[in-house]
């Protein structure tokens, strides 16, 4: 039986999703697609495509359903067939960390007790993230040094960022697993990667994280009144092997969570196939696909994007002009 041919466009690197779709469809990359996939970094380009728009959210942002027909992301909401709750840690290359984390408590006591280093942090982006992460890092360092192996606040000998984060983390008892920002539902791979490395995550970001993950298996900063209380708990575990091992032997997920359902690849497949099995005209949902108030959202986005691009061009022109003057005056 021949596969249905789908004219599509992928605005970002969604190789994992693409492979899933190729199991069922013959994908034809096109500049005039019927279905186009966006990420947070390419979402402003949606106005260039008058077709079915699907956005896969990887950052702490909410999808705009006036601009997109379908979305998958962190928020636990229901909206017809237009939305899928699908956090980053169960997608693509991040899944392997979750698979490893699910087995971490099966390791023997000798493995956990062999970890002699205290705590690590790997952070590269501080410009677009909350200051709380660095504030906590500095405060925890007052108790014991936290080895920072990222591009930012690197305190390793030589100051070179680590090449393999997972391998770096494996030597430590604890890992700082702070998100860039806080929002209910916004949990990324940071906590699962820390577990995969056999460390205890010190987590901050999603205040509802314990709905999905077992709070006995990590230190949930949201469960304490302030940083001092969190650090007192870290000290207690750090100085008591019995408490440390008890936490390490805990399974990472709650029995009443839907984590295993999210991991089932058919959960994602069903949603994707339901969309692409439709005819393109039938799959359109947003109001501005035909008419309606959504048109104003598109108009405003186009204006903002054009304004931003013109400013960038002007800035580059000014910088180029300065260089030209400098070269001329130096002759």
Task: Summarize the structure in words.
It is built from twelve helices and eleven strands. It folds into two domains: 140 residues, 3-Layer(aba) Sandwich (Rossmann fold), CATH 3.40.50.11650; 150 residues, Glycosyl transferase family 10, C-terminal domain (Rossmann fold, 3-Layer(aba) Sandwich). Helix 2 packs across helix 6. The protein is α/β, with parallel strands linked by helices and 331 residues long.
Percent of residues in helices comes to: 25-40%
Order of neighbouring strands in the sheet with most strands: 2-1-3-4-5-6
Average of the residue pLDDT scores: 92
- How many beta-strand runs? 11
> Shape, please?
globular
Order of helices and strands: EHEEEEEHHEHEHEHEEHHHHHH
Assign the CATH architecture of the largest domain.
Answer: 3-Layer(aba) Sandwich
Under CATH at level 1, the class of the largest domain stands as: Alpha Beta
Please identify the structural class as seen in this structure. Answer: alpha/beta
Gist of the model:
The protein has 331 residues and is α/β, with parallel strands linked by helices. Helices cover 36% and strands 15% of the residues. It has two domains: 4-89 and 264-317, Rossmann fold (3-Layer(aba) Sandwich); 103-252, Rossmann fold, CATH 3.40.50.
């Amino acid at each position: 039986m021949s596969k249905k041919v789908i004219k599509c466009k992928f605005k970002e690197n969604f190789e994992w999703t693409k492979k899933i779709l190729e199991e069922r469809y013959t994908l034809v990359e096109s500049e005039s697609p019927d279905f186009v996939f966006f990420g947070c970094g390419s979402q402003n380009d949606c106005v260039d495509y008058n077709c079915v728009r699907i956005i896969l959210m990887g950052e702490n942002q909410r999808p705009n359903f006036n601009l997109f027909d379908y979305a998958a992301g962190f928020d636990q909401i229901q909206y017809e067939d237009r939305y899928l709750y699908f956090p980053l840690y169960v997608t693509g290359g991040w899944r392997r960390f979750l698979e490893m984390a699910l087995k971490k408590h099966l390791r023997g006591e000798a493995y956990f007790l062999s970890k002699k280093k205290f705590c690590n942090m790997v952070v590269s982006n501080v410009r677009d993230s909350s200051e709380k992460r660095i504030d906590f890092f500095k405060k925890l360092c007052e108790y014991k040094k936290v080895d920072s192996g990222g591009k930012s606040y690197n305190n390793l000998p030589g100051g070179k960022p680590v090449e393999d984060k997972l391998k770096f983390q494996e030597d430590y008892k604890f890992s700082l697993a702070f998100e860039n920002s806080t929002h209910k539902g916004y949990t990324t791979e940071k906590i699962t990667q820390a577990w995969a490395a056999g460390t205890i995550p010190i987590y901050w970001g999603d205040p509802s994280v314990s709905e999905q993950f077992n709070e006995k298996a990590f230190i949930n900063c949201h469960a304490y009144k302030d940083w001092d209380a969190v650090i007192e708990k870290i000290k207690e575990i750090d100085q008591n092997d019995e408490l440390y091992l008890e936490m390490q032997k805990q399974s990472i997920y709650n029995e009443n969570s839907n984590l295993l359902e999210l991991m089932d690849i058919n959960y994602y497949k069903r949603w994707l196939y339901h969309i692409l099995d439709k005819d393109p005209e039938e799959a359109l949902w947003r109001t501005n696909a035909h008419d309606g108030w959504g048109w104003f959202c598109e108009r405003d986005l186009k204006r903002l994007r054009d304004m931003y691009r013109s400013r960038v061009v002007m800035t580059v022109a000014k910088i180029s002009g300065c260089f030209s003057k400098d070269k001329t005056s130096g002759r």
